[in-house]
Design a protein that fits this description.
Blueprint (H helix, E strand, L loop, with lengths): L1 H6 L16 H6 L3 E4 L2 E3 L6 E3 L8 H17 L24 H15 L9 E2 L4 H21 L8 H12 L2 E3 L7 E4 L5 E3 L19 H5 L3 E2 L11
Helix pairs in contact: 4-5, 4-6
Bound molecules: zinc ion (ZN) (2 copies).
Protein name: Zf-C3HC-domain-containing protein
Main location: nucleus
Subcellular location: Nucleus
């Protein structure tokens, strides 16, 4: 829990250091939070660390610089800090696994939640095979049951909406309740994406959108994997 809270401090606009050796997860596992542009701070001992890779380094120097920073993640803590020389193990940060039964129930619940945005759900790109998509069709039926049990109004979603909601839910996307406009977020990498930025399932359905306008063509589809940040387990 604390680890996730620390990872959440690494925002896209304040964490520009793109290296898997000093990813937000790695820094957070060593106790650091991101307080300002590429600046790390330890809340326990107040030590600070600048993680901005200098522009003028050649490749070899950059590798060495990153290696040194990776060591400092442990050594830069002040004496007496519990993080000095220690880190959470890497398996602390992983997709929370549940039994398959629970997972199915949860996914259906998340999907039913997402269906509140029916009509605004994005057209999705996803890596599933035809066989796996076939399995999803069984899940759709269960989603309808879950939706009925938690909502009074009947579900008026098209198949494409249910499919989109199901894929979002499966790949870790949940409704972002902190946003005033429809948005989804990932609870592991804290990426939040406004749904209005993406092509909706309506736009990509020519039968329902005869006069496809320019703006809908320039919007991209929602790739359920690529929209996560690089270090995310999804
Ligand atoms: Zn410390
Ligand atoms: Zn993610």
């Amino acid at each position: 829990e604390d680890l996730l809270a620390r990872i959440a401090t690494y925002k896209i606009h304040t964490w520009l250091t793109q290296s898997s050796r000093i990813s937000p997860v790695r820094c957070a596992r060593n106790g650091w939070i991101n307080i300002d542009c590429s600046t790390l701070k330890c809340p326990m001992c107040s030590a600070m660390l600048l993680a901005q890779i200098p522009d003028d380094l050649n490749d070899e120097e950059e590798v060495r610089w990153i290696g040194r920073l990776a060591q400092q993640l442990q050594s830069a803590h002040n004496t007496g800090c519990p993080w000095k020389g220690h880190a959470c193990t890497s398996n602390v940060y992983s997709v929370p696994l549940a039994t398959s039964r629970e997972t199915v129930d949860e996914i259906c619940q998340y999907t039913a939640d997402l269906l509140k945005y029916c009509g605004q759900l994005p057209a999705t790109d996803q890596p599933l095979s035809a066989f796996e998509r076939g399995l999803l069709r069984n899940l759709q039926l269960k989603v309808f049951d879950v939706y009925k049990s938690t909502n009074e109004e009947p579900l008026t979603a098209e198949d494409s909406d249910v499919n989109s909601a199901l894929l979002l839910a499966l790949f870790g996307w949940r409704i972002d309740k902190e946003k005033s406009q429809p948005a989804v977020k990932c609870e592991l990498c804290f990426r939040s994406a406004g749904l209005w930025l993406f092509q909706s399932t309506d736009d990509s359905n020519p039968a329902r959108n005869v006069s496809a306008n320019e703006s809908s063509c320039t919007k991209r589809r929602f790739n359920v994997v690529e929209e996560h940040r690089a270090f995310c387990y999804w």
